[in-house]
Structures are given as C-alpha cells and as structure tokens.
Amino acid sequence: KQEVTQIPAALSVPEGENLVLNCSFTDSAIYNLQWFRQDPGKGLTSLLLIQSSQREQTSGRLNASLDKSSGRSTLYIAASQPGDSATYLCAPKLTENTGFQKLVFGTGTRLLVSP
Amino acid sequence: KAGVTQTPRYLIKTRGQQVTLSCSPISGHRSVSWYQQTPGQGLQFLFEYFSETQRNKGNFPGRFSGRQFSNSRSEMNVSTLELGDSALYLCASSSIAGTYNEQFFGPGTRLTVL
User: Cβ contacts (< 8 Å) between B23 and chain A: which residues?
Assistant: First the structure.
C-alpha cells in the first residue's frame, strides 16, 4: 500500500522563522509531487508542483525539493508570517495496480505562526 | 480565469437519502477528480473522469458514483447515505488526464449526514 508520511504533524513557531516540512513516501516511482495548503474548512491551494525529473521548485518564499531515490520531499518556508498558518499537504502522484495514476495525500503538517 | 467551482457548498441530509454534488472545472480543463476528506481517513481518492469516461476509481462502495458531461462539468452521487459519509468532498481539475499535470482544487462541499 502506498503511504505518505508528513513530519512534524504540528508546528508552532514565532513570526520570522525559517522552517522545513518533511514528506516521505514508500513508492519511489512517482510522476510528480504537489504541495498544497489548506485553511480550516476550505479547499486545497496548490503551492508548488515538482516533476519527477526536477530536484526543486521555488515560488516566492517557498522552496520544495524532491529526492525520488530516498522517497523524500521537503517544503522550506522562509521568513514565516502569520498568514502562513494553515495545514500543509504533500501529494505525490503514484501509479496504481490499474496502471492509472492518482494523487496520494499525506496526513499533513498543521502550522501555526504567531505574531 | 475562474477557478474550480463546487455546488452546493453545504448540505445536510439524513441517513438513507441520496445526494448529488456538482463540480465545474477551470475553463479548458477536461480532467475532473473527486476526493473525500474526513478527520479519520484524511484525503482519499474517489474517481477521475476525462472526456466523459471514468478513468480511475478509488476503493469506495458502489453507492458512490459519478459522471462527466460534454462540457467537462462533473457530478458525484451518493445513494443510501450513511453517517460515515459525512465529509468534505473536494473536486479537482487538470488540463488533461496524465502524469505530469497540476491539479487545482475547488472549495469543497461539506456534507453532513444526520
């Protein structure tokens, strides 16, 4: 069974800190990996998409890396702000026994950035 | 460009009833996927539609079904509702069905089964 683990499950930091969220997956044969944020009771906002051939992607204060061989991805948030408070979800696109691909979600990291 | 829209945003039903949820993808997107999110199970894949055909289906009972129309809009139906079907149902669209495309999610429909 494909499993996606995110560590830590929760994180509370003061504003301005740089932080790293970790994601590991059991199936290294991924096609791409997306990082999302979810605000309470809301849908998912796509933050970054890394293709399997890429090592990292950057968008503003966010940087995501991908190491397929070790089954790991990290999301780096620079100079955190209270507005970054949300749950962050990692979702590699994996192949099923059917041959089709789907996103498999981790359980998320709940981030709280205090002023 | 408008994002993915889902209607209704909130629903309250009773056990045994059925419900239909609707999803309109981003203009030009032809692939629509559905997910169920619960506190206990997290986000789980329901099914994916592309060009009015179901391409992939998650591990859910046959009470969960869906369809896609020629304009790429999709509906999801749950029959004989159970308490455990209470969840946030999320729809996502991508430009084509394939391995390399980014998925964009809608705001979700919050279903409560009493």
Answer: none
Q: How many residues does chain A have?
A: 115
pLDDT value for B99: 60
For residue B17, the distance in angstroms to the closest alpha carbon of chain A comes to 24
Residue A65: phi, psi to the nearest 5? -120, 160
> Over chain A (115 residues), what is each successive 10-residue block's mean pLDDT?
90 97 88 94 93 93 95 96 97 83 92 97
| DSSP string across B30-81 | -EEEEEEEETTTEEEEEEEEETTEEEEE-S--TTEEEEE-TTS-EEEEE-S-
Kindly determine whether residue A44 and residue B55, on different chains, have CB atoms separated by under 8 Å: no
Residues of A with CB under 8 A from a CB of B: 31-32, 34, 36, 41-46, 49, 51, 89, 91, 93, 96, 98, 100-108
**Residue from B68, B69, B66, B88 nearest B79 by CA:** B66
